[in-house]
Amino acid sequence: MMCPWCDQEMEQGFLMSSRPVIFGPEERESVLWPRKKGEVELMKLSWTISNIPAWHCARCRRVVAEHE
Length: 68
Ligand SMILES: [Zn+2]
Prior knowledge:
Elements: E1 11-17, E2 21-23, E3 40-43, E4 50-57, E5 62-65
This protein binds zinc ion.
């Protein structure tokens, strides 16, 4: 995947966490339920580690991730 910011090849790998990872339109203090409108749960709370496909650009220090 080419980086959408600098147009260089991104490194393919995985975003990993055993805790919830949320994308949302506004900052919040906690990632606990309930979810707010517009929020997307990229990764769930888990006893084991979750891995989702992701691409990293070291130059831009940005990560693009693919979720369900
Ligand atoms: Zn980049």
